[in-house]
Fold these 3 entries.
Entry 1:
Amino acid sequence: MTLRARPYQSEDDYWRIRAFLREVFLKNQRQELSWQTARLDYWRWHVNENIFQQPLNQVFWLWENSSGEIAAMLNCEAPGDVFLQVHPRWLSADLEDEMLTQGEAHLARTEADGRKHLVIWAHQRDQMRAELLIRRGYVRTGGREMQYYRTLNDPLPKAQPLPGYTLRPLGDTDEHPARSWLSWRAFHPDEPDEKYEGWDWYLNVQRAPLYRRDLDLVAVSDSGEFAAFTTIWFDDVTRTGMFEPVGVAPEHQQRGLGKAILSEGLHRLQKLGATLAVVTGSSAAATALYGRVFSPQFMLVEVWERFW
């Protein structure tokens, strides 16, 4: 059956894409060979709304069958940074080759020297895509993400109290400044404070369809200082919880806060009926933590790039 490619057209497409990603995730036995719906929402309402502000009709390409069902999707995370999402029923080298051609034509970024540049993400075990990328002139950059999973079917270890801290959901908007400053401290520890841009961006995070206040967790010291955080996105259709982001302020590290807040999140997910939790990381500190709390095993996603 022939597939037809077209760019994103309307808000209806976005909601069809969400359903498509859920189906693909389940067909792949809940392995993240594609984005989860939660990642799509987080990208749209935080990454794109607050950072890149790319028009949606310029960053999504859809492949549909004659019945109008989505078979595959190509999308940017950042400009020139592209993911291929393919339904397993339609998976083929010919389709991915066509998707890469569209990506190079429409989604590549132009560097200062005038060259085009495209980044593609691929699972380490995806030999078909690796061979295709090599044939088209792509090379591995060494960039990577590790995907960690934990089943929630079995009882979890009892959460241990953490002296000096309280773990709880984020409060109302009067706590947004503290939560935003904590995020800045956790992810920009070496940046000058003058570059901090305020807290209004968090209002967009809370607009995401899967956002739940009871899964937006913070660790607060007895003195009232925000010390650690994680936001968990629970998709009740796939019964999966995705932790994104996770952070601890530098001055509160090495005190067990990362493990404690992840464990609190796992217990909350289990009570909601989730059967799987996932988290992705790349730094040494993050992956060491996730390996302890989730599982030592992980799935590796690698970065490939081409200049022309």
Entry 2:
Amino acid sequence: MAHEAWGLWGDADEVGAANLITATEVLKATVLVKQGRVLSLAQPLSKKTPVPGHRGGLQHFMDRDGGDYAGGAKAKGGFQFAEDTVVMPVHIGTHIDALCHAWCDDELYNGFASTEINSTHGAKKCGIEKLPPIVTRGVLLDVAKGRGGPLADGESIGAVELASLAAASGTTLQKGDAILIRTGWLENQAGKLPRNVDFNNEPGIDVEAALWLATSGVALVGADNFAIEAMPFPEATIFPVHQRLIRDYGISLLEGVVLAELAASGVTEFLFVAAALPLVGGTGSPITPMAIF
């Protein structure tokens, strides 16, 4: 298997395609702000946020609340406060994958050994803390609109369709872009929450589409589904898009993005802003991406 981005930014690089976002890309993206609107593209997080069966859900504990004072806790000078603790997987709701999240043949992005990740210290290489804040041009490719409604589970999206959607909106993909793909999958889950979401069946891009995006020089690929790619996977493969984009091209994946309101706005180009939690050695992070236009 080819390793197209390995060594492109040096043998020690752990940032990957985010290197494509320079000051030039940031400045070009800022001119897209015309209306002063800011949209959050993140799912709300709570105990009801669905996760696949192999992950634990979110747990939320109040450490101090009004009941403590009602029960006799002292309030010096009348000052009172509340505090809470949250325990959750980093791959929950709207989240971003670090470059250490997926690999094959015992090698991570840029040829780092998979043994650099263990349960004691997390990821010594390509952890989520290595990903810089993302400020660049965002591009919405609204496949659901192009097909006249949300895609059915398992439907695949190819390179020709993505290219046609971009052309129809007058958009040419540029170096450092953040590409967001709307399939309608997340919107279809509204009536299934919180327990009946099927994480094993979804529409998404195929490997051909992933390679078209990667060779166009994009820095980030996101979608409104669970895994970016179509599931079930093609025969004799497992997460082929993850392998190619994360491992071979160093492109982080942004999953579970809320795109309905952005799609309704009619805007296809916007200033995209997002920053992962700098969890040292983390394989990903919950995130609040924003579209500003």
Entry 3:
Amino acid sequence: MASEPYQPPYSLTPIMFRMVEEIGEALGHLRVKNGAVEPHLRRGNRIRTVQASCAIEGNTLNVEQVTALLAGKRVLGTPREIQEVRNAFVAYERMAEWSPHSLDDLLTAHGVLMAGLVDAPGSFRSGGVGIQYGEEIVHLAPPASRVPALVDELLAWLKATSEHPLIASCVFHYEFEFIHPFQDGNGRMGRLWQTLILSRWNPLFATVPVETLISEHQADYYAALNASNKAAACTPFIEFMLAMICDALRELIATEQVSEQQTEQVTRLLAVMGRTPLSAREIMAKLELKHRPSFLYSYLQPALACGLIEMTRPDAPRARNQKYRKTALGHLQHPNPLSAGEGGDKQLTDKEGADHDE
């Protein structure tokens, strides 16, 4: 007699239905806007995703450092932190190659994500593990001997389920963390695989930085996992993750709107910058601006976020001698600076240029 197919324990709730509807509306809004995220925002979101997913596991590199590292620059960080970021970026870039239902692809992805970080990347664990948050052990995973069968059952359920992909991806994420199939990297793999599942349903999810919201609500993330463990059903975790997805989409919409509104200011900033790095004070002088907060919010920060300019010292964002220069993308966006921005203005003295750039 054939055994019944595995069915993860959870209940559908009114909160889930409302979240699914709101997520659908947000996706519809993004589809109206040409159906795709702008290229510079897409890369920025991928960097935020990588940084956040690593940060949840204790990596201390910030977004500016990750951006610099992935551009081939040297940053201050431990060899392990640098390897974690590089591996995660490659894994997210290769996501399109993998099937959410494939065991081989799951193991390959872990091999990419944990290369140089564990003894046997891409292999299931051989011993016991648990989830620890702070000083508390919040979950002891099933014995290693059961892992292959449990993962097979979960992948088979994912392939066969008629559940909405938003719900199914959350269920998979929780069940994957419950099984904890690898010695290390389970959290990063669970978040990566949920993004893969969602991106197969809607390609926009390949660039939605849900991990950033999870990082900002890390305590709530572990609380939802713990609540699901205690309830012996992943209902609380599904509700939490749907809220994170919804909020991430809202932030993406807001970011695009801000980007559109600030196009004129960013264009003006690029117009006064040539190939010589400039301090914030020097750029403000060329733009004839005197209000520093407005300059930072409306000009400098959006240009940095869009990858149009970069810091000369990304390892020390607040350095007194920090300067800024156009990136290759910035030169493409505005290849011919205004003549006034290329040496025609009065040069500032060393004293004027030595302010503390925030």
